[in-house]
Amino acid sequence: MLQFYLNNQRIRTEQPAGSTLLDFVRYNQHLTGTKIGCREGDCGACTVLVGELQPDGQGVRYQSMTSCLTPLGNAHGKHIVTVEGINAAAGTLTPVQQAIVEKGGSQCGFCTVGFVMSLTGHALSHKPATPASGLAAIDGNICRCTGYKSLERATAQLTAQLEARPAENVVDWLSDQQFVPTYFKDMPGKLQTLQAELQAAAATNQQPATRNQLLGGGTDLLVQRPEQVRAVPVELLYDQQHLRGIRQQADGRVVLGAAATAENLRDSALMNALFPRLYDHLKLVSSTPIRNMGTVAGNFVNASPIGDLTIFFLALDARITLETAARQRREIQLRDLYRGYKTLTKEADEQLVEISFEAPAPTDFFNFEKVSKRTHLDIASVNSAAWVRAENGVVQQARLSAGGVGPTPLFLTKTAEFLVGKAISADTLTAANEVMQTEISPIGDARGTAEYKRLLLRQLLFAHFLRFAPERLSLRELV
């Protein structure tokens, strides 16, 4: 049985864990403020807030998520907030709603609820409220009417109001200012009680001998096969707290739990110290609600030839740890996970539990590039990452990866080997591109012709090295 709080009501349900939170909210609970739009996580009309009790006892952390792609099982033990649950009293507007009204941020109104919930999540955020964070909060919401400027003005007004938000007792202040109702103050205690009950119940339940189908954030499977996911018992990767950490071992290797999300990576002080441009890299990976949901392991085992996180970690020569239901483990290189298109070397009962990679040295170069029809919130036409260690302008070691140019995510072994010992120059990169073109086999599809994708990958190779060594290269001599 799944148990959670929906607004201020405790829910107990036997609905399938693989069904969507959106359908449960609308059709089971009849809360129709949450809208059905694209059902693919693109439009944001179905945005809700998911509050999770923090293990360090620092209250409840709320994140915006698209409920069309949120498995109902991921609500277990949490606080789910829909638009019906944010007003202090009937007939009154919250400051978020008032800002949208005052700035003319709503016309047809279909998308409005999603913007309201995303901006309410911005108000509840543990991060400082800045103009940039305000706009980032609504990067997963689409409006077809307003041209966005009115919504941007509403966001700026709200962000200015949030400058007075204290660093501590945030929910108390937000409640006093009527951003959220007073019941939010009680939610940490309610979730603690609920978690204790769930843990006690789990301790008495016998674990199944076989592993159910594993489901991560739902950002892919609930787009492609929602009915199939609903019909079978699933085990939720996202809810396995012990698989969500990010740490560095004594030997220098960085270890990620498989359930770490893209936003966990972007929030990690360790990852940001190792990759100073990480925020910009991951900004290219979908929108805030999707990054809040999509797991690293899910991106890997999806086996998409253009998986952004897969390409990122291939260039780091990451290793993955697989575990059977009997707790037997084996470790393989990420590059060895892919046998063919959407085909893995992983056995059916194996679960990906950890990802690890050698931490780059401060003098190493790392870069991730992506080209898509839209800059953000889109699937890549071609993406690529590169790690390079150079001395006096000569490449000592290199690793390159590429997506969208073959049936699997590609680790470009020959190209990397060719670069070793070569001086970074336009001639070297031109020759490296010739080698690289022999390692790829793109096909034409909706995202471009094969010839176009070959050209894109060449440009991304040049882009990597223009960022690595701008003093040795110029765009003019490369193109």
UniProtKB/TrEMBL annotation:
Q: Which residues form the FAD-binding PCMH-type domain?
A: 176-362
Keyword annotations for this protein?
Answer: FAD, Flavoprotein, Iron, Metal-binding, Oxidoreductase
The molecular function terms in GO held by this entry are: 2 iron, 2 sulfur cluster binding; FAD binding; iron ion binding; oxidoreductase activity
State the superkingdom: Bacteria
SMART domains, alphabetized: CO_deh_flav_C
Q: Name one Pfam family in it.
A: Fer2_2
Domain 2Fe-2S ferredoxin-type, by residue range, is 1-86
Database matches in InterPro entries: 2Fe-2S-bd, 2Fe-2S-bd_dom_sf, 2Fe-2S_ferredoxin-like_sf, 2Fe-2S_ferredoxin-type, 2Fe2S_fd_BS, Ald_Oxase/xanthine_DH-like, Beta-grasp_dom_sf, CO_DH_flav_C
Say yes or no: keyword Transmembrane helix present. no
The family database entries (Gene3D superfamilies) matched by this protein are listed as: 3.10.20.30, 3.30.465.10, [2Fe-2S]-binding domain, CO dehydrogenase flavoprotein, C-terminal domain
Which PANTHER family has this protein been placed in? XANTHINE DEHYDROGENASE
This protein is called 2Fe-2S iron-sulfur cluster binding domain-containing protein
- Please tell me the species this chain comes from: Hymenobacter persicinus
